[in-house]
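Retro notes - structure team

What went well: the batch runner handled both jobs without manual restarts.
What didn't: labels got mixed up in the shared folder, which is why I'm recording both outputs here explicitly, each with its sequence directly above its tokens.

Job 1
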Amino acid sequence: MVETEIQKITSLYGQRGKIFHAGIDLRTWNIKFWKPLRILFPEPCEVLRTWVDDWGGGIALKPLNNTQFDELKFIHVEISPALTVGDVFAKGTLIGYSMLSKLNKSHHLHFEVWVDKKTVNPILYIEAAGYKYE
């Protein structure tokens, strides 16, 4: 996921006032070196689709190890041009870097997990995949 040993969550899944936050936000800014962190494949995954909109770049992946999850979405990412829909990439392969956009004014990764065409709390995936978080 984010190239840090511990995934630092800056915003949780769930209701935020009148808006439902369908994922979690992970810190993607290295304060020590003042640069965005790399976003990496969390496990072997197939690229389902990519897009760019006012929120920045997005990528949807099909996880191949944690098959109880249908889709992983990463949003606010400047996606590597080497990623091709339908290709499978290994854990640790570069997805891209966090980015700023028209609607996203701070470096973070918005991460969503989907099961049966509905979002679920991404903490379920993070724990199943063995990632540490705070």
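Job 2
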Amino acid sequence: MQVASELDLPQDWLNDAAKGSFVTITTGDVLYRASLVVRAASVPQLFAMKLAAWRDAIDRAAARLLLDQMRGSRMEIWERTQPLVPPDQMQKASYAFDDLWDSIHGLS
């Protein structure tokens, strides 16, 4: 609301439908900078959101692209991702992560 007031924007200027997927906010790349700085969510946060949603082939494809940008072992990546998953979506996200990892790297 503060941004809307300061920039004379409608109160609903920003789609907040994704807010239920955020456990905490991480810092991503700067997308726009003027009187307002707009950042992307970090790759781990976007990855956690895709795992929590895990609806169809689109989520799988996007999650795979995000996973390709992350470095580390299976455990290291999950340890960075897990705190960003909403608690009520943890089981689905965990299964989705295992399924995705195994489809790329094989069973470990």
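One thing worth noting from job 2: The chain has one domain: 2-105.
We'll revisit the folder naming next retro.
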